[in-house]
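User: Structure please.
Assistant: Input sequence and predicted structure:
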Amino acid sequence: MPSSNKQVNLTNPIDNSFTPLDLALSIQNSKIPTLICNTTGIIVLANAAAGDLFGYTPAEIRGINQNELFREEKNDIQNEIQVITENEFFRAELTAIKKNGEKFSCEILSSFFDTDGESYLIVIVCDISNSSTKKMNERFYFATQATSDIIWDWDLSKNTILWAKNFTKILGHQLPPDCTLPFDFCLQNIHPEDRERISKSLSKAISNASNEKWENEFRYRRSNGSYAYVIDRGYIIRNNSGKAIRMIGALHDITKSKYQRDLLNLELRLFEISSLPHNSFKDVVNELLEGIEKIHPEMYSSVVLLKDDDTIESFAGPRIPEEYSKLINGLPISPVTGSCGTAMYKKEAVIVSDIQSDPLWQTAKNIAEQFELKACWSIPIIHSNGKVLGSFALYYKTPKKPSEQEWSTILRINNFMRLLFENKLSVDEIKLSNERYNIVTNATHDLIWDWNLETNQVYRDPKGLKKVYGFSSNEPIKRLNDWLKQIHPDDHEKVQKTIFDILNAKDENTFDIEYRFKKENGEYAWIYDRGYMLRNEDGKAYRMIGAAQDITERKKLEQEVQNYQKAINQATISIQEKERAEIGKELHDNVNQVLTTTKLYLDLAQANTELKDEMIEKSLKNIIIAIDEIRQLSRSLMSPSLGDLGLIDSIEDLVEDINATKKVLVNFVAAKIAENTLTQNQKLTLFRITQECLSNIIRHSEATNATVELYLTDKKIVLKISDNGKGFNHSLIKKGAGLNNIRNRVYLENGTLSINTQPGKGCNLVVELPFSN
């Protein structure tokens, strides 16, 4: 059997994905005996009707050459088949032979078709032993020209249409026993917006005697009230005078393919407009929502954003009332903030089929009721990094659950929405990065440079180039060798070595160096330069980015600092000598005098036996006084053993020593404090302030009682020291060394100091240091 060079399209022009599986399912359900043969005439597929007609099972008939079924007409078949290469169909009346040898008259209708790159012949066999069968076969002959799903036969004289029984299966309308319906019934089921157009198209095709075929696409009402998108094809049969008497054709349901096509076209259009710079992101999202609402007119689509404070912000909704958007703005997301708030809170889809009865709408039910919104399905828009960006929602004005197709669409659109959001954020990040770069280059005194090792050219931002290198154009120094010529001769070798080392390093990618650079005006500037090396997968350097800074002024200051350092060192030595002198003075004026007097007592006791006991007793008292003076002096000079005793124990020890002198009675009150949460500096600061204050009270206040309190409040540790002494005029001693020391210590710990005192009314000092447990 010759192969065909002409492909016969047995499917609709919208969806050409006609596979062998589709074909098998189609003919198996058919009541018409149908054979599928390959190009050599071998039967590769047959339905049960064909097996019954020839007396074979479908399995037995497969593999038989079709010539065995039409053995007596073999030559005629071969001759007829030759016509297929020139015409789409051929028709022949033959004598067929069954498995048991019984012969019968039949009519075959055949056509080539291609699928998966292979050519096949479809053969419809009809028993024409009686005229009614032959008439029915004629209908199917003309119907094959329309490649139908639902075959119909329109009798124009009676204005009735005979429908195939799958009319009920596909569109839901019940057929009468004779399967015939008035033409007006069929016309009225066409969508009102398409009805007039289809009526005119049919009239025009029928009235033109030269027309044999008619085709159009429209919406046809199903029995449940929904509409199917269909493509309808018809073959017009005319009498000898050219008048149309019958029209045979087929109705093909393209709802699914058109639906997918419309979605795809919408996505392609959105990708196109989102790439145009003049279109705002909000316009793009609105365009997407409008497209969805056009495909699903009953939907009310919406997109809300999740703000940083976890509240809702309306973003887009072409048909959502503006007042509704205002009312939901600012609502915090939670498990009961409607579909969108809950979806963003839980990071999962939320389907609410009846808003009024669903507890998820507890806090927003009244808002939805004002606008007659009865159902809401929402899916969070989640960035690939896991962050919730917003929510995509669909509202309905009747309680409703999503169909499988609707839910599939929602998931698809939501994923597309996520891509749009991520693309928008990426573009914004790039813009922000560029803005930051421009701001940095304008605001910084650094020179930003980018060295392309493949071209050996260095880009430098113009403003930084002028500020740092003093060049008005990068052209004279854009190549590395030209730039190196500007380096001071004493620094040239060092700079070259640094560059060479970083280029050949394996694990090191950063460097920094200081050098002197000859500016365009001939002056040298000190430059601090640092860079970062970029390498490919093999570790080879291909690019270096860095920043150079003019540090000439800093170098001058460093020299001045060196000069000042000598003066500071000298001042330090002087202070140390002064401190030693003060210590010597204390030892001389106090301890030395006491010890001298003690020596005189002991000399007198040795010389005069009558005064011996009295002088020894006085000497012992003086020695105790000397020991106390030395201990007080040592304690003021040495750091307290806070690490051993802790803050509270150290203050208690200090208070006990003071109380032992009986010069003033000090009461220490301390709250329970976890000292391990205090820093060592905080402990030392609190101890030194206590030590300084108590020392001042003893020396100057003439107080008989003092109180030291240590406690926590409002994440602060508070030290409060008060006395009943004579007080003082605070304004007159602000520059005192003791108070300045206290102020400095408090300042270094980011604390606060307050002093409440008046002459004759004692003194109250409060220190507060920040505390974090």
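The two ends are 94 Å apart (CA to CA).
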